[in-house]
Specification:
The complex is a heterodimer of chains A (184) and B (162). Chain A is an all-alpha fold. Chain A is built from eight helices and no strands. Chain B has helices at 6-28, 37-55, 57-63, 66-91, 116-144, 148-154. The chains are: A mainly alpha (184), B mainly alpha (162). At the A-B interface, helix 3, helix 5, helix 6, helix 7 and helix 8 of A face helix 2, helix 3, helix 4, helix 5 and helix 6 of B.
């Protein structure tokens, strides 16, 4: 269990650096470090599917963000933060945190102990027991997202398709001619 | 986007094939081991992003032209929906696992689990092509924001307004 606290500490430090640093490139790299810590956590929680997706998306998003950062002339943030706003947000976050601690203290299960393990007739337990027999897929994650709940996957594919369509319509067109010019 | 130094080029020319193969593995074995269509597709796209960063955009555009990538994207989405429609025709409901009777679950066999590997394949194709397209569009977008030179050059494109 200690590994989770070490990872959590690592991620919190990376998040603080990402917020506080003036160099945008360092901030992007720190965001990637947070994602890397999260994927390690998923790996230790025995969810390799999510770990693979997490690390892949974080690394790819990191590359895109780095390219977007380097292409701008402005890579440093200047100016001071407002003291009053910082104090107010810290107080509000602390109050919300204390309220959540009070509410969740007795009801939340232990970390790494999924809540569906307590209820024998939960849908997740049915998937775990019947998944191989019903769908034939050894990877139960695949049997859930491509057989039991394939409509979710269809919706996700539709969302991605529409997003790509919109992005291409907005970003293309005028840019085609500029490709011919030499790189600066 | 210009390419990088010769060190980056050499290393990425060795690594690109391994990354691509890993993506193909993730997609094909998605129903047997961790992985699946989405993660494998992102890995496929990231191999092309690596090439784009190392060798420049024009190299990638020669390898995988935009119309081809766009068509792969559409093909993946179309075939994935076709799996569902075939389930409707053969099994009676949308997205029925209609191949399950023919290829039942055998632990560790590549050809098993009915339509799940097929769906994984199509989703991987779709996700890889679309992420590649998004990154390509974003790297093109950089040129439009360069100021008045970009505005004057775009006048000849015959596209008035935004």
């Amino acid at each position: 269990m200690a590994i989770f606290y070490i990872l959590l500490l690592f991620m919190i430090i990376a998040a603080i650096i990402a917020v506080e640093t003036k160099n945008l490139l360092s901030a992007v790299i720190c965001v990637g470090a947070i994602g890397f810590g999260g994927s390690l956590m998923f790996l230790f929680l025995r969810a390799p599917d999510i770990a693979i997706t997490q690390i892949v998306v974080e690394v790819l998003a990191l590359i895109i963000l780095i390219r977007a950062t380097i292409s701008r002339d402005l890579t440093f943030i200047s100016g001071d933060r407002e003291f009053f706003g910082t104090v107010v947000s810290v107080v509000v976050l602390f109050v919300i945190f204390m309220a959540a601690m009070r509410v969740f203290d007795n009801t939340m299960p232990q970390f790494g102990d999924p809540v569906f393990g307590r209820v024998p007739e939960a849908a997740s337990n049915t998937y775990l027991r019947q998944g191989l027999k019903d769908t034939g897929a050894t990877n139960l994650v695949a049997s859930v997202y491509l057989d039991y709940r394939v409509y979710d996957t269809l919706g996700e594919a539709t969302v991605l398709f529409t997003a790509i369509l919109g992005a291409l319509v907005i970003l293309r067109g005028k840019s085609r001619k500029r490709v011919e010019e030499p790189d600066p | 986007m210009k390419g990088m130094t010769v060190i980056v080029r050499t290393v990425s020319s060795w690594v690109k094939l391994l990354i691509f193969l890993f993506g193909v593995y993730l997609i094909l074995f998605g129903h047997l081991s961790p992985g699946g269509g989405f993660a494998g597709g992102v890995v496929l796209a990231s191999s092309y992003v690596l090439l784009m960063l190392a060798f420049g955009r024009r190299f990638v555009e020669r390898n995988l032209p935009l119309p081809v990538a766009s068509r792969l994207d559409c093909l993946g989405a179309f075939l994935f929906v076709m799996v569902g429609v075939l389930g409707l025709l053969k099994g009676g409901a949308f997205f029925v696992n209609f191949l399950y009777a023919k290829f039942p679950g055998q632990v560790g066999r590549l050809v098993s689990a009915g339509t799940i590997p097929l769906s994984n394949l199509f989703i991987g194709l779709k996700v890889g092509a679309s992420l590649f397209l998004v990154i390509f569009a974003l790297s093109l977008f950089r040129y439009d924001t360069k100021g008045p030179a970009g505005l004057s050059a775009s006048d000849g494109a015959g596209k008035p307004g935004e």
